[in-house]
Amino acid sequence: MPSPLPVSRLLPRVFGIGLGARSSPLRGHAGASTLRVPSAAGFYEQQQQLARRLWSSSSVQWRELRGLERIGAGGFGLVFKGSYFGETVAVKRVRRARNNALASRQSFWAELNAVHLQHDNVVRVIAATTASGGDDHDEECHVGTIVMEFAGDVNLQQVIYDHDCVVEPLPLALCVRYATDIASALHHLHAHGVAHLDVKPANVLVSPAGVCKLADFGCSLRLEREHEEARPLEIGGTYTHRAPELLRGERVTARADVYSYGVTLWQLLTREPPYRGERQYVMYAVVAQGLRPELDLAVFRSAVGCVIKDLLVLCWSAEPNTRPSAADLLSELKPLREHCLTESCRET
Predict the structure, then answer these.
(1) With 0-12 CB in 10 A as exposed, 13-18 as middle and 19+ as buried, what is 266?
(2) Residues known to be catalytic
(3) Does the predicted model carry a pTM greater than 0.90?
(4) 140 CB-near residues (< 8 Å, 6+ apart)
(5) Which long-range contacts (CB under 8 A, 24 or more apart) does 330-338 make?
(6) Tell me: the pLDDT tens digits for 185-205?
């Protein structure tokens, strides 16, 4: 359940609270389907300016942040569970990477691309600051702190792969419901000019109520005008889910998320890893040989499975413009969800 804490009270004025998604240091102008990351010099200048404003805003009320318990770690920091104004929250502390300080700062600011995204299937940011909360020992390596709604202890990666030796398929109705949740999140992101760029099961939290929420915006970028330069400094994400145009270093669009979504949906249905083999071989084969996850499997031979198989082929198109949009995905999935619900009722 989204936190009832008022965003306008907790976030600094620098974010410009309003009805739509607003600026972070990785954003220029919201518009069509391409995006741009500023040069290293420009990024540092913007980041430093906003860092000073965030610091002075004291947007995280440290006295209200209590009972922190470490629950995870990532490439650029630690994640804690705690209490904020009496509500359970997740707290991410982004730390400066020793070998790539710019990347860790980019990751922090990229997380703030989700500040104004309020949707049932997106983990919501409550507060953020570059201050370290008075921990002088941590000051040197601290980049920023982000307080988010706590969406649960389980991610989709665990749902798919945490099983016994005998692997039973997940119920088809459950797969379609989860897939619809993720597509709904992407539709909201793309409508507000945000590309996630790291869609994968580990970045989808499953709430106790069984609702999928897209999380971890550390690789996200803001969509820009089509005519502007669209080559980012560095694209993160997971190579098994990365669209071929990203692997080639080409122009990025929101359809890169659709490609990653397709791999995630395939994992939901098969409970298998998408590829086996060395990283460099897989990346080369995806780009040069059209390698995609296996579709000649029993799960894709049912009536619903055949529809999803056709959808996956479109999601994995080498040409981004021929992939469906997130809205198209929802149009295809909603009838399937209704069909699965009807079949479940008949069985009971």
Answers:
(1) buried
(2) 198
(3) no
(4) 96
(5) 330/180, 330/183, 330/184, 330/187, 332/307, 333/176, 333/179, 333/180, 333/183, 334/180, 336/176, 336/304, 336/307, 336/308, 337/173, 337/176, 337/177, 337/180
(6) 999 999 999 999 999 999 999
